[in-house]
Fold this sequence. Notes:
By secondary structure, this protein is an alpha/beta fold. It is built from nine helices and eight strands. It has helices spanning about 15-30, 40-45, 55-65, 70-80, 100-110, 120-130, 150-160, 175-180, 195-200; strands spanning about 5, 15, 95, 110-115, 140, 165-170, 185-190, 205-210. A six-stranded parallel sheet has the order 5-4-1-6-7-8. A two-stranded antiparallel ribbon has the order 2-3. β4 (about 110-115), α6 and β5 (about 140) form a beta-alpha-beta unit.
Amino acid sequence: MKGVLVFDMDGVLVEVGDSYRETIIRTIEHFTGRRVTREFIQEIKNQGGFNDDFVLSHKVCRDFGVDPGYQQVVDYFQGIFLGKNHDGLILRERWMPSNGLLDRLAGRWRLAIFTGRTRAEARLTLDRFVPQMVFDPIIGNQEVENPKPAPDGLLKIRAECPGAPAFYLGDTVDDARSARAAGVPFIGVGSDKTLLDLFARENAQAVIANINELERVLP
């Protein structure tokens, strides 16, 4: 029986500094007139509970004394990220796995995704970079009742693969907490010292700087 490798997308499979992170910055600036840094965003994510970028953007606006309403934040955010015809900042994303890595992994493991994106948005990016690669299942935020750090997505994947060993790769403390709650060994991805300390506190089985180091820490 193959084991299951479950990937978070943003920061693991896809570099999103110029897409999601820039969209957060522009959204906050639009409503508040204040331009925050990527380091500021990371500090908030390190607190936990802000895996959803809509929620994070709305929180910062309110912290800055402006409450445009959650749905207005979502609509403006998506207008920047997706654009009018999927021509927004989503096109700035960069695929992180090196050539051949996922093919080698797929020979030994079933590959799955548990992401805070919608499944449709995940497919847009996957179809652009690796249309031939099979990830099954793909669990997005519309497939779970409770978002990360709740373990719902990982539990659904484990239910589809009963008895199979599993690992979850993620780049936030919410990913680590979701894995711990689901009883799935966690592999942290990142190099920020604060984040590495958080991974250690959440009992990460291993930590790698990026996905291309994954094979050296797998059994």
